[in-house]
Amino acid sequence: MAAISNRYARALADVSFKTSQHEKVELELLQFEQLLNRERELFLFFTNPAIPVPRKKAACREIQQRLKFSSLTSNFLFVLLDNYRISYFSEIRQAYQKAANERLGLVEARITTAADVDSRVKSRLESCLAQLTGKKVLLKYEVDRDLIGGVITRIGDTIYDGSIRQQLNLIKARLASD
């Protein structure tokens, strides 16, 4: 379903950037996703094929009015309902975020460390990764207490494993092969 999610996300990104609404759309999509995650019954309502689309649209319209969504986001949600794609909303929202970041020259990097890192280290990581990618880097940090030390960085599908655990595994493999 990634291809479908990407297609919807790119189409929305095209329109939202053309109309200079990409930031507002991004916030509204995130707000709607949080609502669906928080209210499981609402998600089940929207994804139930037995409930007629006009009824789903009426409920969606009510939510959009209360949350003061732009017409672009509102129409996009209606398209998802019409095409029975609302069950892929989280994937589509994430693909939209990725498409928007690409257009803005941003790349997301997920940093995993054994402990919290201070702002000096964060700043150094950001500048090194910006130099590596040639783009502005948005860093997201995670702590994994199972790491002995070091850093694991994931940018897209590429993983840079500089953890002590990985280094020990490499030494173990070398010793086993000798």
CATH topology of the largest domain: Peroxidase, domain 1
Order of helices and strands: HHHHHHEHEEEH
- Tell me the total number of β-strands: 4
* CATH architecture descriptor of the largest domain: Orthogonal Bundle
Main beta-sheet strand count, sense and barrel state: 4 strands, mixed
Rg, Å, rounded: 21 Å
What assembly state would you assign to the polypeptide chains in this entry? single chain
End-to-end Cα distance, whole Å, is 45 Å
Uncertain spans, ≥5 residues at pLDDT below 50?
A: none
Average pLDDT works out at 91
Keywords:
2 domains; 178 residues; elongated; four-stranded mixed β-sheet; 16% strand; alpha+beta; 8 helices; Peroxidase, domain 1
Please explain how this structure is put together.
This protein has 178 residues and is α+β, with helices and mostly antiparallel strands. It has 2 domains: 2-102, N-terminal domain of the delta subunit of the F1F0-ATP synthase (Peroxidase, domain 1, Orthogonal Bundle), CATH 1.10.520; 107-177, no CATH class. It contains 8 helices and 4 strands; from the N terminus they run H-H-H-H-H-H-E-H-E-E-E-H. The protein has helices spanning 2-18, 22-38, 40-47, 53-67, 71-82, 89-104, 119-133, 164-177; strands spanning 106-113, 136-143, 150-155, 158-163. Strands 2-1-3-4 form a 4-stranded mixed beta sheet. The termini are far apart. The model has no long low-confidence stretch (mean pLDDT 91).
